[in-house]
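Appendix B. Raw example, untouched.
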Amino acid sequence: MGKGDKKTKRGKISISSYGKLRPRRKKFTVRPSPTKGAQKPEA
């Protein structure tokens, strides 16, 4: 089990592939959050 093994993390890195043992990083997305001073509907 090492660089030549496709089922290990080290093997995935050496052959530049991904899988369950080496998941891809999720891209960080910025969502517009509601502001603290948001106007509330008056009753």
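End of appendix B.
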